[in-house]
Amino acid sequence: MRYLARRFAFYVVTAWAALTLNFLIPRLMPGDPVQALLSRFRGRLDPRATEALTAMFGLNDESMWSQYRTYLVDLTKGDFGLSFTFFPTPVSTVILDSLLWTIVLVGVSTVVSFAVGTLLGIVAGWRRGTRWDHLLPITTFFSSIPYFWFGLIVLFVLSGELRLFPLAGGYSSWLSVDFSWPFLSSAFKHAVLPGLTIVVASVAGWLIPMRNMMVTTMSDDYVVLAEAKGLSPRRVMLNYAARNAILPSVATFTMSLGFVVGGAVLTEIVFSYPGIGNTLYQAVINEDFPLMQGIFLIITFVVLLANFLADLVYVWLDPRTRVEA
Where is the chain membrane-spanning (predicted)? Predict the structure, then answer.
């Protein structure tokens, strides 16, 4: 418990530092978001609205400390302000609308790539020196290709030339967002290509470490003893070697779930997918301070929570951690 209490205190301090940086960084960026908003309406807003918009977005002449206090008070109420990009929609609504798309796409893709990469790594490590080792250069080749470049190739071949999948978006524009079969089938077709891009590009990140840990674990005494006792190879591979070799991968997977909220920014931009990564990109190019702050804040807290869960999982899986603590 003392170990977990120290870790929890560390995450509390980190969360406060992240809150402060989240407040400061957008305000240190060059440019005037209010003028950018006025220019987007192309003269349809009265120039006298500048003062009202400046006060509404909290960018008036108040001191930085006063703005910081207002920022913290608003956060305790769950108020992230209004989005410049999707004005006058609240930031919380914009984030919720795009977050679900990213969780489904990137979350499912992360789980699939972890499962496939880990299973292939277990088998490749157990059968080292055989044809299974050919998986290493193949998967490494695909992982070395940048996400956006691989996405463009897949988009050009499967959507542009073969016309097997839609070119862009999250669903067909004439459908309403609901749980009807036409919408779900359309959303699935639109998610196949970006999901495939993420899975293929990230499998090597799970396969290679798992394979190397399997090779290292197989020389440990308890694995050698299990083989000497005449246990079946499958039981030795799964219950003895893989069970201990998977510990680092499980911890890494738990932390990677925290980054799911951040979305695969480049992949979502290439496929024009309506996820949080694409929304963040629009917020940056439009100098949308409230939306950037809201997204960064959500990402930060989810990553910190995922790291804390990783500590809990590791303590639960590895008794040595509890003894050392």
Answer: 7-25, 99-123, 135-158, 187-208, 245-271, 291-317
Q: Per the domain annotation, does 15 fall within a domain?
A: no
Helix axes 289-317, 2-28, angle to 10 degrees: 160
241, containing H or E segment: none
- Could you tell me if 291 and 278 are in contact, meaning their C-beta atoms sit under 8 angstroms apart? no
Phi (first) and psi of residue 200, to 5 degrees: -65, -40
Q: 235 is in which domain, residue-wise? A: 99-286
Asked if residue 82 is part of any domain, the answer here is no
Give me the mean pLDDT over the 51-69 stretch.
Answer: 67
The rounded distance, in Å, linking the Cα atoms of 55 and 71 is: 13
The Cα 277–Cα 98 span in angstroms is: 9
Give 278's pLDDT tier (boundaries 50, 70, 90).
Answer: confident
What CATH code is carried by the domain that includes residue 163?
A: 1.10.3720.10
In whole angstroms, give the CA distance from residue 96 to residue 87.
15
Q: Which residue has the tokens 């914009």?
A: 94
> Are the beta carbons of 280 and 292 closer than 8 angstroms?
yes
Give the whole-angstrom CA distance, residue 78 versus residue 265: 25
φ, ψ dihedrals at 165, nearest 5°: -135, 160
The one-character DSSP state at 82 is B
From the list 315, 318, 317, the residue with the least C-alpha distance to 2 is 315
Has residue 251 got a pLDDT over 80? no
From the number of C-beta atoms within 10 Å of its C-beta (0-12, 13-18, 19+), residue 150 rates as buried
Do the domain assignments include residue 301?
no
CA distance 211 to 39: 55
Q: Looking at the predicted structure, is the pLDDT value of residue 101 above 70?
A: yes
pTM, two decimal places: 0.72
Tell me how far apart the alpha carbons of residues 54 and 33 are, in angstroms, rounded to a whole number.
9
Number of domains forming the structure of the chain: 1
Interatomic CA distance for residues 231 and 185, integer angstroms: 47
Within 13 A of 294's CA, how many CA atoms are on the CB side?
A: 26
Residue 181 forms part of a structural domain:
yes
Residue 263 is given by DSSP the state -
